Predict the structure.
Amino acid sequence: MTLRFLWSSHQGPERFASGYKGFFYHFLDMKTGQRTWNSELSTIDTALLMAGVLLSARYFHLDFEGELEIRGLADNLYRRVDWRWALNGGPLICHGWKPGRGFLPYHWVGYDEALLLYVLALGSPTHRVGPESYAGWLSGYRWKRLYGQEFLYAGPLFIHQFSHLWIDFRGIRDVVMRERGIDYFENSRRATLVQREYAIRNPRGFKGYDHNNWGLTASDGPGRRLDTVDSAGRRFFAYRARGVPFGPDDGTVSPWAAFASLPFAPEIVLPTVRHFHALEPAHDRSCSAGATFNATFRNSDGGGWRSTDHVGINQGPIVIMFENYRSELIWRLLRTCPYIIDGLRSACFTGGWL
């Protein structure tokens, strides 16, 4: 049903279409399937969607009518995405597009979750971008040495995870990683270790940070507010891409971000999982790992802040990465996807399972 909807939903430049040029809007109304919240046609969210679409095609591999339909719809959806159009005449893929306004003034450049986006765009059999696009993205890389770890830097933990949900980067390297002598998987491991070490050191003195209480990423927060807590001035935020060690950081922790790093560093993630599981009463799901909390923030009754929402883009990485750690299912399936293979090779990845 989901693939049928995605394929048959209206694609066009109209304000309330579901998508355009094969891309989908960042937010769709759950009842109508149309664009909502004045959202943009999102290149990265479409890439995440297409990764799941291609995964479904690899999982449903039998020659039954329903599974044949799934594979056909998945293939059509991926082939329809016009990655070249999203370049807007330049070498880099734009963040998005809005009806009546055109392309957003931002492009995917430098290390971020767009690693997956560029692999999919490079592997397209219908609207493939050239290797110069990937080279342009690489040009924005920043390397740092923090807490004894040298790694390709990005502050929020989700950046080091989202592409890895789908693609097994163990042992395969592009030109940059060959020069550095590591792979993207090892890079994410180092970023995970830096996150935990930051919480242990807790340079800003937030309440609750320790070896089992860590995970800064893009998340909701208690809201924009300047307050004095324990004689210290604190600035709090609503939704922000929180990161370490340079911030922004207002004491908001997302346990799901730590959990989704399980394959990278199980020796530190598993104790953290057990810690939060012990804190979660069986009758109170508000304490689940998908929630985000801030123990430093003080609300009207003197307690801390905890999110009331359970967001799919937070919950999904936990499930996927737990399964990759347990059985490597998602990685194994997409290692057989010809589009993923073509995209990686077009980005000059070599070695390992390639």
Remarks:
- The chain has a mean pLDDT of 94.
- The two ends are 33 Å apart (CA to CA).
- The CA atoms of residues 219 and 239 lie 5 Å apart.
- The first helix runs from residue 2 to 8.
